[in-house]
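Q: I'm building a small set of examples for a reading group on sequence design. Run inverse folding on the following structure and report the sequence directly after it, with nothing in between.
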């Protein structure tokens, strides 16, 4: 069963550093999602693993064996693209059998494996259909099963659901996770869809400008990331610039626009410039009042219905904008122009980061 090690992988195109000293270990049977903004190097990375692109530096090892010099077909890797690459003149069964046929597999084994794949994706009744007679989701299931039929246990998925409708995409991502678990596959899945990555990955790899900036379990990266870039990129958040005005045991008081807030933290000192992050779902809205506890007051300037939640954009003091996600089950709805109070559990739902040396905008830029 395959494990994968990347050691110091670099790739340059002219002056563009597509990959910059990337190292990564992926365990056997692990489902890893690689995410990051367009152009960050995630697709280049898995093409290097597949052998489609040769890295300028570094080593790729599968089960501790170097594969840099091996041809694509000798690496025993399954590769599924965003563009569904089925042969249009072949039936579903013929597409599934193709890889085994070109390898010279005996006809009896081809029939056995093909039937297993048809059952695996619940498409035996469509075995005689041509790709154009299938939905996009069904076509992609066939493409995945064709890769599995070759006997590979290491799979590279390059935006495999990107061309599908949202509902089909959501359904198929759980199907992929099930197949990986049932068959004991090792999968590296590149996606731009953060929800997709959070919902199926054992670990997330966050990339930026050709480098890995953070690796961790989805919940860890969402709730307690180590980097400001990951905090901003994975899910929506509010980033507020402030300065430390008081340091206590296990907590830090930060002043933001005249408002003092307490953040669980240690290691800062008075006068440090910092960035406070607050997830939108951690902010509650209430009708404006001068009584009771509150963080800020402001006016609603945008209301967006998103199904299970309503997204409110509120302008507070000094023109600062905050976003709040309020469940639609909430008793109170607010209109544009309405005055509101914003409430946050300061201890549980705030993260503190050092102000970036290159500036906040540059640090979180998606380029």
């Amino acid at each position: 069963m395959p494990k994968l090690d990347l050691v110091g992988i670099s790739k340059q195109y002219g002056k563009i550093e597509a990959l910059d000293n990337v190292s990564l270990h992926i365990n056997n049977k692990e489902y890893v999602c690689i995410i990051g903004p367009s152009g960050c190097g995630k697709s280049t990375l898995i093409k290097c693993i597949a052998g489609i692109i040769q890295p300028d530096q570094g080593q790729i090892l599968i089960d501790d064996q170097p594969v840099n010099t091996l041809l694509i077909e000798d690496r025993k890797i399954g590769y599924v693209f965003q563009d569904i690459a089925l042969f249009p003149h072949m039936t579903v069964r013929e597409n599934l059998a193709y890889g085994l046929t070109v390898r010279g597999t005996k006809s009896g084994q081809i029939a056995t494996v093909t039937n297993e794949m048809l059952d695996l994706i619940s498409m035996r009744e469509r075995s005689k259909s041509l790709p154009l007679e299938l939905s996009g989701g069904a076509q992609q299931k066939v493409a995945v099963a064709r890769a599995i039929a070759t006997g590979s246990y290491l799979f590279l998925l390059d935006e495999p659901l990107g061309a599908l409708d949202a509902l089909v995409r959501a359904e198929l991502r759980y199907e992929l996770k099930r197949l990986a678990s049932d068959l004991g596959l090792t999968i590296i899945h590149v996606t731009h869809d953060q929800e997709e990555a959070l919902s199926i990955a054992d670990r997330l790899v966050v990339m930026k400008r050709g480098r890995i900036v953070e690796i961790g379990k989805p919940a860890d990266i969402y709730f307690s990331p180590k980097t400001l870039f990951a905090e901003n990129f994975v899910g929506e958040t509010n980033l507020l610039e402030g300065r430390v005005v008081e340091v206590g045991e296990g907590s830090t008081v930060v002043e933001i626009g005249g408002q003092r807030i307490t953040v669980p933290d240690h290691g800062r000192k008075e006068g440090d410039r910092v960035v406070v992050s607050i997830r939108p779902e951690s902010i509650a809205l209430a009708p404006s009042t001068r009584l009771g506890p509150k963080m800020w007051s402001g006016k609603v300037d945008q209301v967006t219905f998103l199904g299970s939640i309503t997204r409110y954009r509120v302008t507070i003091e000094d023109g600062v904008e905050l976003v709040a996600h309020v469940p639609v089950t909430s008793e109170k709805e607010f209109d544009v122009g309405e005055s509101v109070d914003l409430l946050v559990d300061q201890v549980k739902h705030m993260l503190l980061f050092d102000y970036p040396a290159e500036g906040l905008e540059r640090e979180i830029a998606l380029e």
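The chain has nine helices and 20 strands.
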